[in-house]
């Protein structure tokens, strides 16, 4: 059966304070073991992640119409008609004075 401890009385008769070293040491050991296991599991899990590979499924040169594998040049764009030049204002419009 566990005994309930009362308040710790510090005074002239009790110069030393008894610390619970056994339970503190046990807690520290279990914490170190838990976090060590956690870090090891994270490391092992990270190594087993699948790697991503990028595969180009479209050939560089189309097989239809070009058996030698020489790419043909695209057709030239049609010539666009020239735009008419903008008329620039030589004089500013006059305003009437109020």
Q: How is this structure best described in words?
A:
- This protein is mainly alpha-helical and about 100 residues long.
- It has a domain of about 30 residues.
- It has 1 helix and no strands.
- It is elongated and about 110 Å long.
- The model has no long low-confidence stretch (mean pLDDT about 80).
Helices and strands in order, then pairings?
Blueprint: H1 21-47
Largest sheet: none
Shape: elongated
List the uncertain runs: none
Structural class: mainly alpha
Rg value: 43 Å
Query: Could you tell me the number of beta strands?
Result: 0
Strand content: under 5%
SSE succession: H
Report how far apart the termini are.
Answer: 108 Å
How confident is the prediction overall: mean pLDDT? 78
Relative helix content: 25-40%
Q: Please tally the helical runs, counting DSSP H or I stretches of 4 or more residues.
A: 1
Question: Outline of this structure?
Answer:
The protein has 98 residues and is mostly helical. It has one helix spanning 21-47.
Key features of this structure:
98 residues, mainly alpha, 28% helix, 0% strand, elongated
């Amino acid at each position: 059966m566990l005994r309930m401890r009362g308040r710790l009385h510090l005074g002239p008769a009790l110069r030393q304070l008894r610390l619970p070293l056994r339970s503190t040491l046990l807690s520290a050991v279990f914490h170190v073991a838990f976090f060590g296991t956690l870090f090891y599991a994270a490391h092992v899990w990270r190594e087993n992640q699948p790697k991503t590979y990028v595969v180009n499924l479209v050939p560089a040169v189309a097989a239809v119409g070009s058996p030698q594998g020489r790419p043909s040049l695209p057709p030239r764009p049609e010539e666009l008609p020239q735009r008419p030049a903008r008329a620039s204002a030589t004089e500013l419009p006059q305003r009437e004075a109020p």
